[in-house]
Amino acid sequence: MTTTERGRLAGRRAVVTGAASGIGRSIAERFLHEGARTVLLDLDGAALADLAASLGDAVVAHAALDVTDGPAVTEAVRAAAEALGGIDVVVNNAGIPMVGAVRDLTDEDWDRALDVDLKSVFLVSRAAWPHLEAGGGGAIVNTASIAGMVGTPGQAAYATAKAGVVMLTKCMALDGAAAGIRVNAVSPGFVATPMLERWLDGQDDPAQARAGVEAMHPLGRLGEPRDIADAFVYLASDEARWVTGTTLTVDGGFGATSHPL
User: I need a labelling partner for 155 at 20 to 30 A (CA). Which of 19, 83, 135, 166 fits?
Assistant: First the structure.
């Protein structure tokens, strides 16, 4: 795959976290198809290297990164900016699931979920901010979740972290407006990713669990990573030039109704 000459993101210099699989992989593929030059970051360096090799020369660089490690994040973003010659788009997609009610979660569970799913957005955005300012502005797009917008049982830490992403998105949008930095989020419903497959496989009856989750979406199916990646392309592009501080829900109608979870 090579850079598209006249894509919707032609000439954009993008950094994508959590890029090795699932939604992040699809975002990377869509960005490259739309003309962006990218640096891809993920904790799984081996999977990331395989992805970069398959995508071709539009991947300017890739690196293994723990997005909860502040100094490592600062250095990775600095190196990305150097490799790209600046940064125009930041995608904060790295995340992990964390299942459990408050009574069941350990301190470590809670801290891990908040660190990976929320604090990482702060760390990466803070590191990228001066590079975005230096380029006259840009776009930050964060991965939130429908779980951060409607209450769900057994998701106390994950849902709280994703709700935090929604509010952090609003605050950063206000802080960045004067500098031309737009900040938005995408809130997916249940998407067919390796992370969801692992969760389904861990249920007592995986087939029944899958059918139940599909039925929660009025459009009658799980989302595909491409469904979510297309929203990221829009929010990173000039088509969204007057859009900031919003969370775009892409959930097959999940949030439009109530569910017997």
Answer: 19
In contact, 156 and 101? CB cutoff 8 Å: yes
- Both ends of the chain: CA-CA distance in Å? 41
Q: What are the phi and psi torsion angles at 65 (to 5°)?
A: -150, 135
Residues 196-252 have pLDDT tens digits of 888 788 888 999 989 999 998 999 999 999 999 999 999 999 999 999 999 999 999
Which DSSP state fits 17? E
Contact between 160 and 101 (Cβ < 8 Å): no
C-alpha dihedral sign at 167, 243, 231, 20: negative
| Nearest to 252, CA basis, from 155, 161, 187 | 187
Kindly give, in sequence order, each residue whose CB lies less than 8 Å from that of residue 215, ignoring residues fewer than 6 positions away: none
Q: Which residues contact 255 (CB under 8 A, 6 or more apart)?
A: 146, 149, 150, 187, 189, 249
pTM over 0.85: yes
Residue for token digits 């901010």?
129
Output phi, psi for 143, to 5 deg. Answer: -90, 110
Q: What letter would DSSP give residue 141?
A: E
Burial category of 90 from C-beta neighbours within 10 Å (exposed 0-12, middle 13-18, buried 19 and up): buried
